[in-house]
Amino acid sequence: MPKIASIISKFDASIIEIDKSNHSQLISLNLKIKLTENCLNELRQEVKLNGFYSLKEEIYFFKKQKPYIKGRLRFYIALNAYLLEKPAGSRSKQRKYVDLQLSYIRLENCKYINFVNYYKLNETKNDKIYFLRGIDQFELYIDNSTIFEDPEFRTTRDHLASEIVANDLLTKYYTSALELLKNKNAKPTIQEVQNACCTIIPWTGTPTELIELLLSLNAKGAIADGNLSIKEIEEICINNYGVYPGNTYQIVEQIKARKSNSTKFIEKLKISLIKWLSEN
Question: Rounded to an integer, what distance in angstroms lies between the CA atom of residue 180 and that of residue 188?
């Protein structure tokens, strides 16, 4: 939905403006918390007012867009608590405290590891169960914050998706904090993980098709002058399209090993484009 994308883009721009300010970390975090709460409320109103044009659009919102915002709200609140509660003793004591926070995150992830893997691998087979409203499912892990949440603005798993986003952001921050504690005068910055859902339309083909497309563009020199490595292509899949291809090297070998029509997806693109050009 264009309106939802516009709301999120406006949110991102406002976050950047806060980061550019000279506010202290705590003041900046409080501003971000208020901004994120307002953004969530604006999204809720938009969803209730206009709904979705398709099930695919609804799934995408609750799987990617809402967790992008709500995950950041969780991140800002958790980081605010960390900054207020962290010990002021030796760097060794502070490192132990940060390690403890990381262990809490690992423990949380272990509680629902199957869903964490499902979400991070961008699987889709259970999306209609996890990310459509009105689907009843037995919950092993109940998030108290969702008990009173508007049923028109939640699904059975979007809160867990938000927690995954928050935990990824916190893990990145805490890991940076551990490194910077080696430098007495350094302060970790609040760096956020870029979420592909808010930069481009998500890839709806298969991971193999995306790899084939990127390989062809790289081979032609149409991107990065043809100098991308397989690892860099994998990172593009994850960061720009939200696709976790798994073993990218194995996928490349499978494409190379095709006995006939090794570029079958490229051929499909050619046929589809010719058809579109003739009809439009």
Answer: 6
The pLDDT tens digits for 194-216 are 444 444 557 788 888 999 999 99
Report yes or no: 196 and 242 within 8 Å, Cβ to Cβ: yes
Write b or e for each residue in 147-167: b if 16 or more Cβ atoms lie within 10 A of its Cβ, otherwise e: eeeeeebbbbbbbbbbbbbbb
Per-residue DSSP letter, 202: P
SS3 23: coil
pTM over 0.70: no
Residue-wise over 31-54: b if at least 16 C-beta within 10 A, else e? bbbebbeebbebbbebbeeeebee
Mean pLDDT of 226-239: 83
Rg (CA), the chain: 21
Domain ranges of the chain: 2-198, 207-279
Q: Are 86 and 97 in contact (CB under 8 A)?
A: yes
Q: What is the mean pLDDT of residues 112-124?
A: 90
Strand, coil or helix: 260: coil
Which residues touch 2 (CB under 8 Å, ≥6 apart)?
A: none
pLDDT the model gives residue 205: 83
Instruction: Using alpha carbons, select from 89, 45, 39 the residue that is nearest to residue 67.
Output: 39
